[in-house]
Amino acid sequence: MVLASGAGTRVGAELNKVYLPVAGRRVVAWSLAAFAAVADVGVLVLVIRPQDAELAGEVLAAHPGPVEIVHGGATRQASELNALRHLAPRIADGSVDAVLLHDAARPLASPELIGDVLARTREHGGAVPGVAADDVVAVTGDETVSARVPGAIRVQTPQGFRARPLLAAYEQAEAEGFLGTDTASCMERFSALPVRWVPGGAENLKITYPHDLLVAERLLSR
To answer: Where are the alpha helices (DSSP H) in the chain?
Structure first.
């Protein structure tokens, strides 16, 4: 599932940042292409804002394979739940056994990384890519900086989970009114699945600010 239903206002553009051009394609097109290149990805879902339907249609017209469209909700978690409910019949019959959730604004996720996350998800139940955060420090209650936090990572996407526990956790979160910071936080609260770390990469950046577009342009052009 590729999530493109946010606004992305910090990038300073009038349109949703995932439809901005970078290295000859729109940002979201790079994300879709990476997933389409992974043989084990059977269903590709793009979650969009209704007002972006025309832009999404332009992207999909140039995409070589089938992509299913789902409208997002008021929050990221609601958008993910909409997509999971769309997949629910296939999750129930086992034809969808694992789900990967990816920010459309990360156009540099490689097919190799996606494949690694999927394989680790099927093996253990959950997996997230990340990079070591050696510069993260703890702050005490009086705002005093203390020692570095050992073993900290900066989590990226795609995040992968076995499909049935993922859907069940999101339905329970909806019922209880819980809003997590990301998919992994929701699973940690409502599921016993272990979540493994897969080494990500510094190049798997999320486009948030205008300079991120320049960096992505250079990397993708290369």
So the answer is: 27-36, 53-61, 76-92, 111-124, 163-176, 183-190, 210-221
